[in-house]
Amino acid sequence: MPLVKVEIIKGKSREYKQALLDGIHAALVEAFRIPDYDRMQRLYELDGENFDTAPTRTEQFTLIEITAFEGRSPEAKKNLYSAIVRNLGQSPEINENDITVVIHEPPLENWSIRGGRPVNEIELGFEIKV
Predict the structure, then answer these.
(1) What is the structure's pLDDT at 125?
(2) What is the domain range of residue 66?
(3) What total number of domains does the chain contain?
(4) Helix or strand or coil: residue 57?
(5) In a domain, 128, yes or no
(6) 127 domain residue, yes or no
(7) What is the pLDDT of residue 56?
(8) 3-state secondary structure of 69
(9) Closest by alpha carbon to 68, among 18, 28, 9?
(10) Does residue 126 lie in a domain region?
(11) pTM (whole model) above 0.90
(12) Rounded to the nearest 5°, which phi and psi values hold at 44?
């Protein structure tokens, strides 16, 4: 159950934002092998004056933070980064140099998603060690 937080500069179309979220989710399904229904995404749109980036970045700069269960291999993470850049390059056509991805992995005992029990004590229904 990755939690996805995306930050962009305000002013993009509805179609652009949907393509952005769909591309990230498709990459998570592909690389982390999460179920397609397992989607929890938040999109934050900031005024340009509130999103200070390096002069090498454009108005398309996209910061993606993913909080996920620990356990994915370095290879799965590399595959995720690659899939995100590929997908977002195709639609909504974001340059690879304008995409930054950060993964946070709190231990399983720091999550509770069902019935007030920690994740390490429940059956998820999918493998996280990919």
Answers:
(1) 81
(2) 3-121
(3) 1
(4) coil
(5) no
(6) no
(7) 94
(8) coil
(9) 28
(10) no
(11) yes
(12) -110, 125
